[in-house]
Design brief:
This protein has two domains: 1-84, no CATH class; 85-126, no CATH class. 6% of the residues lie in helices and 18% in strands. The chain has one helix at 73-82, and strands at residues 7-11, 17-21, 62-65, 104-106, 109-111, 132-134, 137-139, 161-162, 165-166. The strands form four sheets. The protein has a three-stranded antiparallel beta sheet, with no helix packed on it. It starts with 6 loop residues before the first strand and ends with a strand.
Amino acid sequence: PYDHHHLRLRRHHHGRTTVTPNSSSHRGSHFGGRIHDTPSRNEEHEEPEEGVVGGSEDPTAEEEPYSGDLPSLGLRRYLARSWKPQRCDKKRKICKLKGSPGPDCCHKKCVDRKTDRLNCGKCGRRCRFTKTCCKGRCVNLAFDRKNCGRCGNKCRKGSYCLYGMCGYA
């Protein structure tokens, strides 16, 4: 896996943000120097220079250390495919670590069975399309008096939940 602390953000005067390797030892090694945002319909597609993310180097760009916030959907998709998450089938303790998606291990992935629609309450229990997982139960937020509009939002006694609102009339 690539250590994201070796990345550098550059904010350009025209609003575009690029990510480049932080040191020359990493230049082009993981990225191959060819990662850039998908151009919009109105932009011409230009091939970036070697070792540059998002086009040519901009001398007016401000450099700052990479904060962990990914600047673009295209880059997030690339990194999601290239980073391999650890599997919990052999090391269940990794699910308890800070930053884990959840404390439970289901189908070799860390999940939170209290909120995961694909593993609600127990591994493999899926909530239907219209339902959400709240505290390990599949509920319909539009009509559930104990989870009206969002998990844990209880309607007052005598009131009911309709379209996710308590006492809607």
